[in-house]
Specification:
Length: 278
Amino acid sequence: MNPAAAVAMVMLMSFSITLNPDGSGKAVVEITCSPGPAVPGQANVAPEVANAQRILGMFGKVDAWSDISCSALPDGRLTFKGTVYGKNAATLGGPGRTTWTKDAKGDMILGFSFDGYPGSSIPRPQVLTDADLAAQVAAFKAAYLKRKNNAEMDTLKIKYSYKVPGTVAESNGLAKQADGTLLWAFDGAKGLKAQDLLVSDERYLRDAILSGFSPVSDRGDQVFVEKVFGAKGPWMARVTGEMKPQFDFDAEVKAAKEAFPKMMEKLGLPAEAAAKQP
């Protein structure tokens, strides 16, 4: 599992998402990461600016960006902050996918997944001899140890918070906070410890392999998903009651688009990049 692969080596990632009843929304995005690989043709571009370009590209098609800032810290880490707007909630979360749909009762369902987790939990059973199963368990342990020694997930922290219209009636995998927001959080150090415990559990490894899952990585392995992320899938919340817009989407997008060229110029991006508004 490598949910940090989207932009260089991500260390901190935070998305504070506000949704309107129609599914439009905005997200305040904050990312701290190590410098990424050099980009051809950008030798004279400051690392923090090149990093901002990579992050903007990670989102693809959105309605607007505003309040973008970026910097290089004394220790070499790069920071990015900005607000992204989208008519569709699915465009707001980068590697995290948000869905906002109506159920048969007329309630709204907020759905969330990260890097494809949690996935389909349909087992793919296989029949193995005891010797073959033992060999696969041993091979997996050796591969895991090698992979773990090269991992940097222990520095990773990710947070998604949601401010939703209406009242949260129930949720799974999204914790309701005192201020009414919903929170999904991942701590890489804790996740690695959970993975280590699973790898030391022979019964878990045998059951996962016999079920056709790749241990401690398969998106459909709900035992793994629960241990590492805190809850089995699906991660969701049901929102009920009266729902009113939480902000004026059209007005804020219009203002963001008008300010976009000067904001990009101030960041030091090339003129042709500044002209490419969302």
